[in-house]
Design a protein that fits this description.
Blueprint lengths: L2 E2 L8 H13 L11 H5 L3 H7 L3 H24 L5 E5 L6 H4 L7 E6 L1 H10 L8 E6 L5 H11 L6 E5 L8 H12 L4 E8 L2 H8 L12 E2 L15 E8 H7 L6 H4 L9 E7 L3
Parallel strand pairs: 2-3, 2-5, 3-4, 5-6
Antiparallel strand pairs: 1-7, 6-9, 8-9
Helix pairs in contact: 1-4, 4-10
């Protein structure tokens, strides 16, 4: 089952994520604060809100997802376990500006040039907390992606690859290809991702059955076994946090509209992977 989103192009999902992050950030008891989210979402806030039938569910998911990813990134950077973060399909993410990161940490964002240029212009008066580099690229273009990875292969030190919100939009064969490419990238020591199972995708689909965007932006990939799917692709699970379990710890209980969803919602969450020895 595909979940069609209320946007017209995959780059528009970046505005949707920023909007959902702004909702949590504006709460007095916010579990994270993204002071730039509302500003970045602003040009498309009205149209997105007019189509957003699952604000409560979306905010719940984004709160748990963002908090977990923030925690993993800050811990690995603080411990010196990684010297660089490569943020694939970075969108309007602002972690390089808002997290507590070492100044010498290299943060490399890769996404459509126009999206990164927009973010850079909107945040022109802000200084990143670390060494930020923007790389305009269509990650769906094999040649561009191969050249980008070839440059990354020359880097010294350990790299954390972040694919927040990317995998669900890819067909399964593209996920398998990406997993192999990252395994073959010498500097890529860790892979941090969000995993959406069919149960989670179905629960959101049921809340917006009439949404059919013009260019077919949809969730396509959702492994029923959760992060265990990647073990067959040569990766080892270092840590996994279920959205359901973590949201209870955050005192953000699962919305009532999701509680009756069939399937293993608890296998949707954040996974930190490392390469398995051959």
């Amino acid at each position: 089952m595909k979940l069609h989103l209320p946007v017209d192009h995959v780059s528009d999902t970046a505005y949707l994520v920023a909007l959902l992050r702004s909702y949590e950030s504006e709460r007095p008891d916010a579990k994270f604060r993204d002071p730039f989210a509302a500003l970045l979402a602003e040009p498309k806030t009205a149209v997105l809100e007019s189509k957003l039938s699952w604000k409560e569910s979306g905010t719940w998911l984004m709160t748990a997802r963002t908090h977990l990813l923030d925690r993993h990134i800050e811990r690995l950077a603080r411990q010196g376990s990684v010297q660089a973060v490569v943020n694939l399909a970075a969108g309007l993410d602002t972690r390089a500006y808002r997290l507590s990161l070492p100044e010498n940490l290299a943060w490399i964002e890769a996404d459509f040039p126009e999206l990164l240029d927009y973010k850079k212009a909107r945040l022109s008066h802000q200084l990143p907390k670390c060494s930020l580099q923007n790389v305009g690229i269509d990650l769906g273009d094999d040649e561009e992606r191969h050249q980008f990875f070839a440059r990354l292969a020359q880097r010294q030190g350990k790299v954390l690859v972040l694919t927040e919100g990317l995998l669900p939009y890819l067909p399964e064969e593209s996920v398998i290809t990406l997993a192999a490419e990252l395994r073959n990238l010498p500097s890529a020591s860790y892979w941090l991702m969000d995993v959406a199972t069919p149960a989670l995708i179905r629960s959101f689909h049921d809340q917006m059955p009439n949404s059919e965007p013009s260019q077919g932006v949809a969730f396509k990939f959702g492994p029923a076994e959760g992060p265990a799917y990647f073990e067959r692709l040569g990766w080892r699970i270092e840590a996994f946090d279920s959205f359901v379990d973590h949201s209870e710890c955050l005192e953000r209980p699962v919305p009532s509209v999701l509680r009756g969803s069939p399937g293993a919602l608890n296998l949707s969450g954040i996974a930190l992977l490392s390469k398995r020895s051959s």
